[in-house]
Design brief:
Blueprint lengths: L11 H4 L2 H7 L1 H4 L15 E2 H14 L5 H8 L6 H20 L3 E3 L5 H14 L11 E4 L1 H19 L7 E7 L6 E5 L10 H12 L21 E9 L1 E8 L12 H18 L4 E7 L3 E4 L16 H13 L5 E8 L5 E3 L5 E3 L6 H16 L3 E6 L4 H14 L3 E3 L5 H11 L7
Parallel strand pairs: 7-8, 7-10, 10-13, 13-14
Antiparallel strand pairs: 1-3, 2-3, 4-6, 5-6, 8-9, 11-12
Helix pairs in contact: 4-6, 8-10, 8-14, 10-14, 11-12, 12-13
């Protein structure tokens, strides 16, 4: 019996790196509503959109080699077999994304329903039946962690060589890592004993004695004055509130400014969790009002037809930081517009989108002064460079002794991380 051998090509879906695919899909997974004003308030995403994004990544990205693409597409672009191969590959990739925990679908989606939709699509030539609602998916915490890691790696790579560590100061303390010379133990020090120095003090004080019973031939009597503790550099901790402007202007004027802000938040969260575990990060969205969200909810947030209530965002951030017992407390405010809303004492929202309203500006600056009185630094990252806005932001920096950065969505992450990392070598006294 003759055997016919052929080259083994394997399953392309199993060989492809899901991490590279998720990186290519980051714009979809962190979608902020740019270019889709009709769905601005609908945070859900459909599997059809995921299907189209994967198709675009396969054809335009570097996920597949040129030989693999030619083999999948066939000799002619409209070849039916080539379309079937691409569809099969995309379906396998979506299944792998679900199995690996990067995305999850709604719990009411069953296999039979998916098969019915596929049969309906094949019969009608459309993607779904008229009676079937669009299938939706959600981004998981694993995908957010990975996107934060990739964003942090890319941003730090563009900054050049950066050494990681905690926020170092010139003070010495009795911590876990021994970085300084040992010192005599004092009441209140961490009991991080330096064995060699402690035993040496005891030997110098009274020498080595021989035990009477002979079971322990040598004894060293260590007394309280002999105790020596190892010193480590005192490392301060920092509490940060990241304020994100999600007013409508963040997706206007031909560019998406909110999605880069999302990436900065994810990268900062990944940096704090992995390199500065003693620090804290909170995220506050400010629009007509202000609200605190968990970092895992960030991927579902979109901008809306909102005004910019900067004062309410600062007030909420100050309340959060007042509860933190940290050496450093700061607010990182990312915005692209002027304050245009104000919450009155009775709860009503006063809005004025025309120019810098003196009432809104004065109340906002009063809140900045309250942050300064609480020992909170406000660093502002402005995504616009209008003359009136520049004057306002510089006034904010003067009041709270913070910094004002005028940047773009493309360089925002570099500026934020550079400002945060610089504090690890800056003294706090």
């Amino acid at each position: 019996m003759r055997y016919k051998y052929s080259k083994f090509t394997g399953d392309v879906a199993d060989e492809m790196s899901l991490e590279d695919l998720v990186s290519q899909l980051s714009d979809l997974l962190l979608f902020s509503g740019f270019g889709d004003n009709s769905q601005m308030n609908d945070p859900d995403q459909t599997l059809q959109a995921l299907h189209d994004a994967i198709m675009d990544a396969l054809l335009k990205g570097d996920l597949l080699s040129q030989d693999t693409l030619e083999r999948l597409l066939g000799e002619e672009a409209g070849d039916a077999d080539a379309q079937d191969q691409i569809e099969h590959l995309i379906q396998k990739l979506i299944q792998r994304l679900q199995q690996e925990g990067y995305v999850t679908t709604s719990p009411d989606l069953e296999q039979e329903r998916q098969q019915r939709q596929q049969r309906t699509a094949a019969a009608t030539g459309s993607q779904s039946g008229p009676d079937a609602p669009p299938v939706r998916f959600e981004v998981t915490d694993k995908a957010l962690d990975f996107l934060g890691y990739r964003a942090l790696r890319d941003l730090l790579g563009s900054l050049g060589k950066s050494s990681f560590g905690r926020h170092d100061t010139r003070d010495l303390a009795t911590g876990i890592e021994a970085m300084g010379a040992p010192k005599p133990y004092e009441f209140g020090d961490t009991l991080n004993l330096d064995p060699s120095s402690t035993i040496l003090n005891a030997v110098v004080r009274e020498g080595i004695g021989r035990h009477v019973s002979g079971e322990q031939p040598f004894t060293i009597n260590v007394d309280y004055p002999d105790l020596m503790v190892a010193q480590g550099e005192y490392q301060s901790s920092c509490a940060t509130v990241l304020m994100l402007d999600c007013s409508h202007s963040m997706i206007l004027y031909g560019e998406d400014r909110f999605t880069p802000a999302k990436r900065v938040a994810l990268a900062l969260a990944n940096l704090i969790r992995t390199q500065y575990p003693g620090d804290g990060l909170h995220v506050v969205l400010f629009h007509d009002s202000a609200e605190e969200i968990h970092i895992k909810e960030l991927a579902r947030v979109r901008v809306g037809p909102y005004y910019t209530n900067t004062r309410e965002g600062l007030r909420l951030a100050r309340r959060i930081l007042d509860r933190q017992r940290k050496d450093m407390r700061q607010i990182i405010m990312i915005t692209d517009g002027k304050p245009s809303a104000l919450t009155r004492p009775d709860g009503r929202i006063y809005k004025n989108a025309f120019g810098l309203d003196p009432l809104i500006v004065n109340e906002t600056l009063s809140e900045v002064a309250a942050c300064r009185n609480s020992g909170i630094i406000v660093n502002t990252f402005m995504l616009a460079k209008d003359y009136d806005l520049v004057t306002f932001v510089r006034r904010v920096a003067e009041i709270c002794r913070g910094k004002a950065y005028f940047t773009t969505p493309y360089t925002l992450g570099q500026y934020v991380l550079m400002d945060y990392l610089s504090k690890k070598t800056r003294t706090i006294h």
